[in-house]
Amino acid sequence: MNSSRVLLRSNQFILLLLFLLQIQSLGLDIDSRPTVEVCATHAISPGPKGDDGERGDPGEEGRDGKVGRRGPKGIKGELGDTGPQGSIGKSGPIGKKGDKGEKGLLGIPGVKGKAGTVCDCGRYRKVVGQLDISVARLKTSMKFVKNVIAGIRETEEKFYYIVQEEKSYRESLTHCRIRGGMLAMPKDEAINTLIADYVAKSGLFRVFIGVNDLEKEGQYVFTDSTPLQNYSNWQEGEPSDPYGHEDCVEMLSSGRWNDTECHRTMYFICEFVKEKK
Ligand SMILES: *[C@@H]1O[C@H](CO)[C@@H](O)[C@H](O)[C@H]1NC(C)=O
Ligand SMILES: *[C@@H]1O[C@H](CO)[C@@H](O)[C@H](O)[C@H]1NC(C)=O
Ligand SMILES: [Ca+2]
Ligand SMILES: [Ca+2]
Asked: Which ligand is nearest to the CA of 244?
């Protein structure tokens, strides 16, 4: 019923619309005065207000609004996760020299060395050192022995040795005796020649020999108390003993004898009897 009424009104509206169009085709403007004058005779009074139209479709989405004001500061967020490890940094400058460390432990002993070729000298060094001490201790004896080896003379029965130390006659006697000998006694020409040659070859002028007249003035004897019975070799004019003080005898490099004072000091010659084999 309602739809038919709507349709009817629609038809009436169309008829009105056609009518208005006809007027326009006659060259007359609706709004123009003449039209009003024309329509004055045909005046149509407006109808009642129509019903409300149907609700239209939703419009298109509107444009974005203006940016609003800055909001208040938010609450502090939670602590984030630990980040990945960074790359190694640059090397720093060289530091100062550190303190000296403590001495390390002893190393492993080395391999035993090769055997020596010519002389294992290190082995004998200690022994040689000890020998040096012994040599120093026996210096006096060694000197004597060396001198003996360097300048000794000998016969079938005896050794002769000139001691190159200046001694008095009595000191010379003692010196020879403590070494197991006696002041040399040239009891024949052969021995006298041997001693004389020894003195001369040693570059000496005189040595004490074992002859004296200490016991009794003018009666010369050898130090073993045997008298000068078969042999003597006095220098021309000797023994003189001008003041009675020359009781000891020296042999000159010529082999001649001369009585002289016993307290004088000079080199002397000892004799040592060879041991019988
Ligand atoms: C002196 O010589 C003789 C004969 O050669 C000898 O018999 C005598 O024992 C010798 N005297 C001394 C003290 O040597
Ligand atoms: C012999 O001895 C005496 C006293 O020492 C001395 O004056 C004299 O020059 C010596 N004779 C010789 C040849 O050396
Ligand atoms: Ca005398
Ligand atoms: Ca004299």
From this structure: 3
Interaxial angle between packed helices 121-137 and 139-151, expressed in degrees from 0 to 180 and rounded to the nearest 10: 90
Cite the beta strand spans of 122-252 per DSSP E. 153-154, 158-167, 182-183, 206-212, 221-222, 248-252
Q: Within the chain, what is the greatest distance between any pair of CA atoms?
A: 226
Residue 233 sits in a domain whose CATH number is: 3.10.100.10
- Please answer whether residues 251 and 206 qualify as being in contact, where contact means their C-beta atoms are separated by less than 8 angstroms: yes
> From atom 10 of ligand 1, which residue's Cα is the shortest distance away?
230
Cα-to-chain-centroid distance, residue 96: 21
* 273 pLDDT above the threshold of 50: yes
* 260 located within any domain: yes
Residue pLDDT, tens place only, 10-55: 667 666 666 566 655 555 444 544 444 444 555 667 788 888 888 8
In sequence order, the 6+-apart residues with CB closer than 8 A to the CB of 235 are 252, 254, 256, 257, 258
In this structure, is residue 74 part of a structural domain? Answer: no
**Long-range CB pairs of 26-31, under 8 A, 24+ apart, other chains included:** none
* Domain extent at residue 187: 139-273
Residues in contact with ligand 2 by the CB-under-6-Å rule are 235, 246, 252, 258, 260-261
**Residue having the nearest C-alpha atom to atom 1 of ligand 1:** 230
Is 268 within 8 Å of 179 (Cβ atoms)? Answer: no
Residue 170, in any domain of the structure: yes
Q: What's the predicted TM-score (pTM) here?
A: 0.53
pLDDT tens digits for range 145-191: 666 566 789 999 999 999 999 999 999 999 999 999 999 999 999 99
Q: Based on the structure, what is the number of domains in the chain?
A: 1
Q: 10 Å Cβ neighbour count for 256?
A: 15
Question: Ligand 1, closest atom to CA 187?
Answer: 14
